[in-house]
Amino acid sequence: MSPWLRQHRFALLAALSTVRKSPGSFLFNVLVVALALTLPFAGLTLLDNVRPLSEQLSVDPEISLFMRADVSRPDAEALLPQIRQIVAQGKGEVTFVPREEALESLKARSSLGGVLETLGENPLPDSYVMKLGGFASAGAAAQVDAITEDLRALPGVETVQVDSAWVKRLAALLGILRLALLLLAGTLGIVVIAVVFNTIRLQVLTQKEEISVAQLLGATNDFIHRPFFYTGALLGLCAGGVALGVVLLALQPLNGAIAEFARLYGSQFQLMPLGGLEIAGLLAVSAGLGLIGALLSVRRHLARSR
Asked: Each residue of 1-45: pLDDT tens digit?
């Protein structure tokens, strides 16, 4: 075994020995850090489940284009090639709806037939209905805006209506949730670092005499500080494991309530735990936060001892 590996093995064993000497204090600190990590871990799990659901939503916006009442039928039909050229970028289908057909459809779908007959003339304009395809996600539906603006610029067009507003609202809501989760994770990450910083500071003060003796015997700063780094990393790692365990246990009752709600909409949606790669990444982040807290605490002690 190389000297470098022996030094790290000794530091790890020293950190484990410190934990065994005061397991109650270590477990208490683990619980405190785990409480801080549970909320962002739960939020990340929720977003991880909602993200593929939002991407799989059927996003096929429909655009309705209404001509002005004074536009003649030949002029309205003459716009068909231009409309098809504009809508081609969205892989859409274009259907011309004469005003007579629109009136008959309105009479058939509503109870306003008698009211419409009393008007004497058809109040509805000629129109086009465009069903756009190729929008596999909420983000891709933003392309509809460009198509809508091009359609509004055509001569004789009175109004252009788009039914994809809900898609944009969903995308905006998910963006807000991601930003809120990022801010929350950053704030609670500072809390984790502060807890580990204070824990290591107390440990350094407790072993102050041992550190002084080691320095007199010629021990380097790296040799003295390395066990504290491992202690901070172990604290963060254990807290991350506890937080993930709490989130996993909370999924069971949540899925029971979600199943009842989803059944009302004919869905079988359930919250799934994070994958192995995501779990490994979160544990690494937890250990890294513990290491940062220990590093800051030990360096502050080193600066004071000089």
From this structure: 577 777 778 777 877 887 788 888 888 888 988 988 888 888 888
Helix segments in 22-160, DSSP class H: 23-55, 73-78, 80-87, 99-109, 113-118, 144-152
CA distance 249 to 253: 8
Tokens 């779990």 correspond to 279
- Rounded Cα–Cα distance for residues 95 and 69 (Å): 19
DSSP string, 172-236: HHHHHHHHHHHHHHHHHHHHHHHHHHHHHHHHHHHTHHHHHHHHHTT--HHHHHHHHHHHHHHHH
Dihedral, CA atoms, 283, 39, 235, 19, nearest 10 degrees? -130
170 phi/psi in degrees, rounded to 5: -65, -45
Question: Domain locations in the chain?
Answer: 3-56+169-305, 62-163
Q: Which of the four CATH numbers 3.90.226.10, 1.20.120.450, 3.10.129.10, 3.30.70.3040 does domain 62-163 have?
A: 3.30.70.3040
Amino acid at 282: L
Q: Which two tokens stand for residue 199?
A: 């824990």
Residue 153 neighbours by CB distance under 10 Å? 11
What does the pLDDT look like over 243-284, one tens digit per residue? 999 999 988 888 877 777 767 666 677 788 888 898 999 999
| The model scores a pTM over 0.70 | no
